[in-house]
């Protein structure tokens, strides 16, 4: 548990959000003493406060519960309810319980939306006694909440399966495959796995959860396919390379003459014109 306060140090500063008591075991007397010293003087940055506290609680990695107490509506950003919805979507069992302290009906509606968006409860307290009761109700609820069991992911022998064909629905062909790591910026990294897929056997490999590029080579042709491996799942890819054929070329000094050593380059024809890049040599 931790305690954050906003709008208490500077006037007009939407980033005036302070962690007055860091995450850890809370001392009741320390909280009371801290709250009694608060002198409201600034903005009410509800959306920014929610995001800041959620990040500190590592809401995308573990269960996180926020108790928001506000005596006014959002005064910095547009809609804190949208932020709450986004946090709930990205978080692991992220919940915000909200108490509106002596606020008007319009503010009640805004604050209630935050609670509903995250599966929390909303309390409208018009006086100190009601505020105290609301806090007790929320604390009791939070203490009774049992953490959701962590799903047990089955152990997988392989996490990637690949088959390669020349055309859609065609027979499988033998091809070489390289798995290339892709970083957060989409840039290619190092090759982390190489394997072969066959005419009668699926190509398989085991790689960690993450985003990658599969580079498939068949008859000197290459194709790159982006993909992602997710926890507890086998990613199955079907790579269609396009139909190919075999070309045999011989060279002689004259028609019907003996063959001679020569170099050959094959270029594709696009719109009746030779393309600048050769596809075989």
Short descriptors:
281 residues; alpha/beta; Rossmann fold; Immunoglobulin-like; 2 domains; four-stranded antiparallel β-sheet; three-stranded parallel β-sheet; 5 helices; 14 strands; 30% strand
Structure described in brief:
The chain is α/β, with parallel strands linked by helices and 281 residues long. Helix content is 22%, strand content 30%. The chain has a four-stranded antiparallel beta sheet with strand order 8-7-10-11, with no helix packed on it.
Q: How would you summarize the topology of this molecule?
A:
Layout: E1 3-6, E2 17-21, H1 28-36, H2 46-56, E3 64-70, H3 80-90, E4 94-101, H4 105-117, E5 122-125, H5 128-144, E6 160-165, E7 175-182, E8 188-197, E9 203-205, E10 210-218, E11 221-229, E12 235-240, E13 269-270, E14 273-274
Parallel strand pairs: 3-4, 4-5, 6-12
Antiparallel strand pairs: 1-2, 6-9, 7-8, 7-10, 10-11, 13-14
Helix pairs in contact: 2-3, 3-4
């Amino acid at each position: 548990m931790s305690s954050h306060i906003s709008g208490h140090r500077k006037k007009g500063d939407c980033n005036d959000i302070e962690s007055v008591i860091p995450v850890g075991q809370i001392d009741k007397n320390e909280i009371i003493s801290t709250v009694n010293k608060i002198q409201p003087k600034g903005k009410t940055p509800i959306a920014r406060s929610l995001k800041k506290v959620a990040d500190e609680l590592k809401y995308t990695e573990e269960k996180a519960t926020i108790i928001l107490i506000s005596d006014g509506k959002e005064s910095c950003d547009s809609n804190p309810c949208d932020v709450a919805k986004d946090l709930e979507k990205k978080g692991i069992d992220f919940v915000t319980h909200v108490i509106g302290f002596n606020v008007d009906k319009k503010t009640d509606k805004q604050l209630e939306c935050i609670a509903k968006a995250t599966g929390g409860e909303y309390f409208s307290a018009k006086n100190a006694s009601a505020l105290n009761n609301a806090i007790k109700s929320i604390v009791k609820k939070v203490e009774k909440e049992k953490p959701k069991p962590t799903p047990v992911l089955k152990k997988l022998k392989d996490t990637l399966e690949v088959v390669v064909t020349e055309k859609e629905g065609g027979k499988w062909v033998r091809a070489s495959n390289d798995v290339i790591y892709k970083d957060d910026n989409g840039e290619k990294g190092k090759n982390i796995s190489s394997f072969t897929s066959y005419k009668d056997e699926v190509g398989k490999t085991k790689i960690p959860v993450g985003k990658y590029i599969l580079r498939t080579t068949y008859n000197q042709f290459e194709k790159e396919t982006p993909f992602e491996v997710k926890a507890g799942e086998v990613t199955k890819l079907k790579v269609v390379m396009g139909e190919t054929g075999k070309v045999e070329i011989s060279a002689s000094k004259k028609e019907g003459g003996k063959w001679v050593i020569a170099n050959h380059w094959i270029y594709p024809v696009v719109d009746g014109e030779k393309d600048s890049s050769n596809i075989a040599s």
